[in-house]
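Final report, Chapter 2: Outcomes

The project's central promise was a pipeline that accepts a single protein chain and returns its three-dimensional structure in a standardized token representation, suitable for archiving and comparison. That pipeline is now operational. To close this chapter, we reproduce one record exactly as it appears in the project archive, with the input sequence first and the structure output second.
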Amino acid sequence: MTQSTQPISGIPCIDFANGADLAEPVDNLVERRAVARFRALVHRILRAEAEGAGASERDLAGLNRILSQGQNHRGVLPAVRGYGWGWIGPAKDLDRILWPVAWSAASLLTGPDLMRLKCCDGCGRLFFDASRNRSRRWCDMQGCGNRAKVARHRVAAGARSPSIE
């Protein structure tokens, strides 16, 4: 798994769409290509929503195919305290890896916080705006936000300084 310098959003589908590795590595070339196609699908859906365009019917059909395959394998499992949702029964390894991401994407798309999904003004990555007033513009204040503020400051400082001829 590769390390990212960007903060983790806390929502697996956003991290995955931005290029984060899956929890379980995929070694087979055919499966890696399937994961790449699925990542592109999730990214297109989430970016379209973040930009206010809405996902295409074709992309939603692709997500729904994965969700329907996993639905028969979703069940209640014991957790540290009580119970939680998990994946049960036999399945191909790749399918079992993709289902949690598909479920996360579906939960975000159908949940009340979809309007908090945004594209970073600095780098274009997707992020979840957890700020109280939903005014966050950057995926990372220390990176993209700082660069934007420095650039804005330089423009303002250049306008104030007298020109030397």
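Archive annotation: Residues 1-8 have pLDDT under 50 and may be disordered.
This record, like all others produced under the grant, will remain available to the consortium after the project formally closes.
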